[in-house]
Amino acid sequence: MNTVNSLLLGMGNGVNAQLLSKPPSHATKPRRQKTEGENTAYLRFDDAGRLVESHGDIEPIWGVKMLKAGVPITDIIPNVPQRQKKNAAEDVFREIVELKYFTALIQNEASIPITITEVSAPRDLRISHFPHVAGIVVVSATTLHVISANSVFSAALFGQEHLKGLMITDLIPHFDEYLNILTEEDNVPLVDGMVIPAHSFRKARALLVLREGKANTASLFLRPYGLPSRHRDGKEIMVDVQMRVVKSETIFPGNLTPDINERPALDDERGAPVAVTEVVYALWITYSRQFHSIMQEENNFPQSPSAKSPSIPQQPSPGQRSPILPPIETPRVDSPLIESQAQQSLLSLQLNEAASEPLTDKPVQPMPEVRNAGLRKEMPKKKSISEYVILEEMGQGAYGQVKLARSKRNPENKVVLKYVTKKRILVDTWTRDRRLGTVPLEIHVLDYLRTDGLRHPNIVEMKGFFEDDVNYYIEMVPHGLPGMDLFDYIELRSNMDEDECRNIFYQVVDAIHHLHTKAHVVHRDIKDENVILDGEGRIKLIDFGSAAYISKGPFDVFVGTIDYAAPEVLQGKSYGGKEQDVWALGILLYTIVYKENPFYNIDEILDHPLRVPYLPFSEDCIDLIRQMLDRDVDQRLTIEGVIQHSWMRPAALAAAASASKVK
Question: Is 525 marked active-site?
Answer without folding.
Answer: yes
